[in-house]
Each structure stands twice: as C-alpha cells, then as structure tokens.
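Q: Give me a protein?
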Amino acid sequence: MSTFHLSLVSPEKLLFAGQVDQVDLPGVEGDFGVLAGHAPIIATLRPGIVTAISGSTRERFVVLGGLAEFSKEELTILAETASSVEDFDLAGLRAQIDEMQESLAKKSTTGDELDRAIALLDHYKSIHISLVPTSGF
C-alpha cells in the first residue's frame, strides 16, 4: 500500500508527523478517509476523532475543529485544539458540556445564535460519546 506524509498541528505543538497509509477525519460535511493518491482537498473539520493508520498501528487524536488540506501526497491538519486520545481531558469536556447545557437553559434568545450553540453542544457530546468506554462489544 502506498503511503503519504501526515502533519497534525495544534496551536501548542506538532502532535504527529510521519508516513501513514490512511487517515480518517471528522469533516463538517461528514466523516471521510484519505489514502495516497486522493484528489486535492481542503476540508473544514468538526470536533471529533482523527485516526492515523500505518500498517497495523492506529493512532487516535481528538480535534475540536480545524482545517485539513491534502495535496501532493501530503495531508496537513491545522487543528483549533488537539490532543492524543490518551491525553484528552474527558472530565474537562464533561464539565464544559454541563456548563453549556446550563447556559442554553438560561438563554432567552432564539434563532441563529441558539442554533449555533445547540450544534456546538451536539458536536462536543459526540466526542464524549466516542471516547467513553463501552461494555460488551
């Protein structure tokens, strides 16, 4: 399988740089995967999980939005906030979700502002759900 170079950058640091076989990304318009030879693309990322696959190794990162650009066999992810799944502060995210829910309950505004706040809350909840260990399967 052909490989390509991935750089995952947050404002704080370079989280990952190396050759990969595939990267799965949480796009605003839907999740998508990138393989070597993919058509050039620029995509906006929603909060979610980025998975970098190289052989049998999978590295997962939590991103809270950003941009991804693939061209000339190189994928660059500029994340608004990012960390490895292992280093992600799940308790902090739960507190942020609770705070947002309380804030939404107090809002008397309607329309676009409320819609955006609810959409953001839904995105954060989707990250929380994908990070919480499940039993059984």
Q: What stands out?
A: The longest helix spans residues 112-131.
